[in-house]
Write a structure and sequence with these properties.
single chain, 310 residues, alpha+beta, Fructose-1,6-Bisphosphatase, Chain A, domain 1, D-Maltodextrin-Binding Protein, domain 2, 2 domains, eight-stranded mixed β-sheet, 7 helices, 15 strands, 25% strand, binds 6-O-phosphono-alpha-D-fructofuranose
Length: 310
């Protein structure tokens, strides 16, 4: 499975690296299931991921951010063991301005007995993932994955066209230097999140101040915080009561990585990995990164927002 992910990542990386030179920039001209305008690279990355797995005989079903329903695979895969769920290219609005973007993937084993996989095989909690990770197309192309035994980073070496181990069993700092949130939504947040961000801005105590870093590309923000320490927040707000980010192919795989690196991920109350999915494209608020920072945010929003409701 991971070699197949690495193959797809090399192909996608090749397109991303040539974005200004080959006709892959700009809108594809269709709106996807999310109601978002598909970028040409979204479609290329989605087709690349599906083709990389379609004939391997390893997956009984796939699901993609870009496809409304689960993606069936040839019946010859009816004994296939794995389920692959992915966001083929997250942050694609950043493609045309050369900002880092990423592919996020989640691997489960099937729950149905045999035959083509079904929606039931896709709707499994993050805690049951057997592997997960992401590829970040940044200053270098890095594949980060976990199979439940630590988080390992591989960098694509363009001189040989192979991913090479860059770091293994990485651990994220318990307290981070950064906080990442889109502060233009401040007026939509609960008082709890306003208190959190005011604290990180040093409003009450300069000792609690953190640097603000927000790229607007989930994989890039997550990867920086994973390595340097930090907390990423995409809360629910008055306009998006379930938040914006997706549980199955964004929050859950990154949550697996975060936990395996000694960090944490929740929706503000419940661990992301323990949320039972009900729909394929289910959204969730996301709070993820350094363990002590996540715990601080959870405590603060619990105290402040609970007070607001009494
Ligand atoms: P906002 C990119 O569109 C994305 O899905 C994530 O990669 C990113 O974290 C988020 O949306 C940014 O959303 O509302 O801050 O622009």
């Amino acid at each position: 499975m991971l070699y197949d992910i690495a193959f797809a990542a090399k192909v996608i990386s090749g397109y991303v690296r040539r974005a200004g030179l080959v006709d892959v920039l700009g809108a594809y001209g269709k709106v996807n299931v999310q109601g978002e305008e598909q970028q040409k690279l979204d479609v290329i990355a989605n087709e690349t991921m599906k083709q990389a797995f379609y004939h391997t005989g390893r997956v009984c079903v796939m699901a993609s951010e870009e496809d409304e329903d689960p993606v069936p695979v040839p019946v010859s895969n009816k004994q296939a063991k794995y389920v692959l769920i992915f966001d083929p290219l997250d942050g694609s609005s950043n493609i045309d301005v050369n900002v880092s973007i990423g592919t996020v993937f989640s691997v489960h084993t099937r729950v149905t007995e045999s035959g083509s996989g079904t929606l039931e095989d896709c709707l499994q909690p993050g805690r049951d993932q057997v592997a997960a990770g992401y590829v970040i197309y940044g200053s270098s192309t890095v594949l980060a994955y976990t199979a439940g035994h630590g988080v390992h980073l591989f960098t694509l070496d363009p001189t040989i066209g192979e991913f090479r181990l860059a770091d293994h069993d990485i651990k994220t700092p318990a307290v981070g230097k950064y906080y990442s949130i889109n502060e233009s939504y401040y007026q939509r947040w609960s008082n709890g999140y306003r208190r959190v961000v005011d604290t990180f801005k040093g409003v009450e105590d300069l000792e609690q101040r953190k640097n603000a870093r927000y790229i607007g590309s989930l994989v890039a923000d997550f990867h920086r915080n994973l390595l340097a320490g930090g907390v990423f927040m995409y809360p629910a707000d008055s306009k998006s009561p379930s938040g914006k980010l997706r549980l199955l192919y964004e929050a859950a795989p990154l949550g697996f990585i975060a936990e395996q690196a000694g960090g944490a991920a929740s929706d503000g109350r419940t661990a992301i990995m323990d949320i039972e999915p009900k729909e394929l494209h289910q959204r969730t608020p996301l709070l993820i990164g350094s363990k002590d920072d996540v715990a601080f945010v959870e405590r603060t929003i619990a105290e402040v927002d609970a007070a607001a409701t009494t």
